[in-house]
Design a protein that fits this description.
It contains 14 helices and 22 strands. By secondary structure, it is of the alpha+beta class.
Length: 544
């Protein structure tokens, strides 16, 4: 397949019926709602107010798009990606590329040229999400690229989320730090779906990721040199940010929270790396791509007459047990061996007690598998059920097993238990846990931020005036970025971000979860903060 440009990719998606174009002008604060309104298709906003870039999102949001990009059926995508990841085709270097049409360096660097906005209500700041971060290992020179989120800090500074110890870019940064060096990194914003798939494949650390990209293409990938750092980037890049990752500072700067792919916030404020942007290069009238994350879109025989009977038995049994039950469902696919209950919990033991009741109270001797959910989960929506199973159930804490229960004798699994006609039964507690070891706000669902129409007759301020006014607003009391945007709604977004950029060196973050508001402070953390313990450690990702 060709090394496709982003405009060609967009045109091909539109021709395939996978992309919607929006011709009318949109403000940057309207972009979250635009994404929310098109969860199953890519969307291109051709005119963003006060911004030189078009806006693309949702361009790799579902399996249909992936299969289309690979030219296969959905059932074949995994096999084809695995096969491509085994190939190695060395890249070639070209002298120039469209991403060199505009070159800004030094004081010309201005991240407010990008369409910046608050995506989710509690986000720490504006983020770029479609960041293919590229660097070389300081010792081996082997290239790696991967997708990382990055928070706005100043007009020429960004933060990176690299808290997982298995992240290769984090390992590169730590290797540089061990040598007393910072790390040169390039951020590529905007590219076709195949590039993203190639970057996401799992390969060993001694593999050059651009050789894998060539394998996905079936021919050498074309790369071009950066202007201010010794890093190569794909020649089909749309926007490139050339950065110095301040590895010598360590994971010492505030980043987050952010509405994650789980549809919830990612565990609060984090300690992460800071990067200084030395150059911006991009295509004239280019496309800024954003990766949509979070929001509101995180899947009969007559004998089945027993389903409503089982539902009635379970509902009555739960009521008699003092459980505030709201609904019970025995789904069709479970053929009466599976049942769900939606309850309102009042004590830490309610969910486990409900499971015991559900597994034993029906005269039908069913179900074999019971699950209990919080009141905010629609148990008639299979996707909602799976969400709760994925993020509110922990096997060693939330599993109830009862051996030798009466059961449906036609079950082919019967015979494995001690007594004939009996079977073990299992319950899954898919409710938000209650107790001191859990932070309730970590389970809150992240939602897009909708600023709404600006108030009428807003008098436009200069950057200096807005900086002074914003400083006074934050001095009155600590403010979340949401509050700042709401207070100054109607001012040009670039002026707002530049004013904040002027204040950023004087601001720190409060420890007032879940907002972690900004306040004037001597450092990034306006409290005694300790970096979080490392997580997701895998010894295979650490070189000796």
């Amino acid at each position: 397949m060709p090394q496709q440009s982003l405009p060609d990719f967009v045109n091909a998606m539109e021709k395939a019926g996978l992309l919607v174009r929006i011709h009318e002008e949109k403000r940057v604060d309207e972009l979250p709602q635009v994404m929310e309104d098109h969860p199953l298709t890519a969307v291109l906003v051709e005119n963003v107010k006060d911004c030189e870039f078009k806006f693309l999102a949702n361009a790799y949001s579902n399996q249909d798009q992936t299969a289309w990009a690979l030219g296969c059926k959905k059932s074949e995508s995994g096999r084809l990606m695995n096969a491509a990841a085994q190939g190695r085709i060395p890249p070639v270097i070209v002298s120039s590329a469209p991403c060199k049409e505009v070159i800004l360096t030094g004081d010309e660097v201005d991240l407010t040229r990008l369409p910046l906005f608050l995506h989710h209500d509690r986000d720490g700041h504006a983020y770029t999400n479609d960041n293919l971060v590229i660097s070389k290992h300081p010792d081996t020179g082997i290239y790696d690229w991967g997708i990382y989120r990055s928070m706005f800090r100043r007009v020429n500074e960004k933060n990176f989320d690299m808290t997982c110890t298995s992240h290769r870019q984090r390992l590169h940064a730590q290797a540089a730090q061990a040598k007393g060096q910072d790390l040169e990194v390039a951020i590529v914003i905007g590219g076709p779906l195949v590039d993203k798939l190639a970057a996401m494949t799992s390969v060993t650390p001694d593999t050059d990721d651009f050789e894998v990209l060539g394998s996905f293409y079936g021919h050498p990938a074309q790369l071009v040199k950066c202007e201010t750092i010794d890093v190569l980037v794909p020649a089909n890049a749309e926007i490139v940010l050339e950065c110095i990752l301040m590895a010598t500072e360590g994971l010492s700067h505030d980043e987050g929270p952010y509405g994650e792919f789980t549809g919830m916030y990612g565990g609060g404020i984090k300690h992460n790396f800071r990067a200084i942007v030395k150059a911006m290069t991009y295509r004239k009238n280019g496309i800024y791509q954003h990766a949509t994350i979070g929001g509101r879109h995180p899947g009969n025989t007559d004998n089945m007459l027993q389903l409503p009977g089982i539902e009635a038995d379970l509902f009555g049994g739960l009521k008699l047990a003092g459980i505030e039950v709201l609904e019970v469902r025995a789904p069709l696919g479970g053929l009466s061996n599976i049942a769900y209950a939606r309850i309102r919990t009042h004590g830490a033991g309610d969910a486990k007690q409900a499971l015991g009741v559900m597994l034993t109270c029906s005269k039908q001797s069913l179900p074999k598998i019971a699950m209990v959910f919080d009141e905010d989960i629609d148990i008639w929506d299979d996707n909602a059920v799976q969400f709760a199973m994925a993020f509110r159930y922990m096997p060693h804490l939330d599993t109830v097993i009862i051996p030798q229960c009466n059961t449906m004798t036609v079950d082919p699994m019967i015979g494995t238990d001690v007594a004939p006609g009996t079977a073990s039964k299992i319950g899954l507690d898919c409710t938000i846990p209650l107790g001191p070891n859990f932070v309730r706000s970590h389970f809150d669902r992240s939602d897009i931020f909708v600023l709404g129409d600006p108030p009428p007759d807003v008098k436009e301020m200069t950057e200096e005036q807005l900086t002074e006014s914003m400083a006074q607003f934050i001095k009155e009391q600590p403010r979340a970025w949401k509050e700042v945007l709401q207070h100054f709604h109607g001012q040009p977004y670039r002026t707002i971000y530049r004013a904040f950029s002027n204040l950023r060196p004087k601001l720190g973050r409060c420890n007032d979860a879940p907002w972690y508001r900004y306040t004037f402070a001597d450092g990034d953390f306006a409290y005694e903060a300790s970096p979080r313990k490392e997580n997701n450690f895998d010894a295979r990702h650490r070189t000796v």
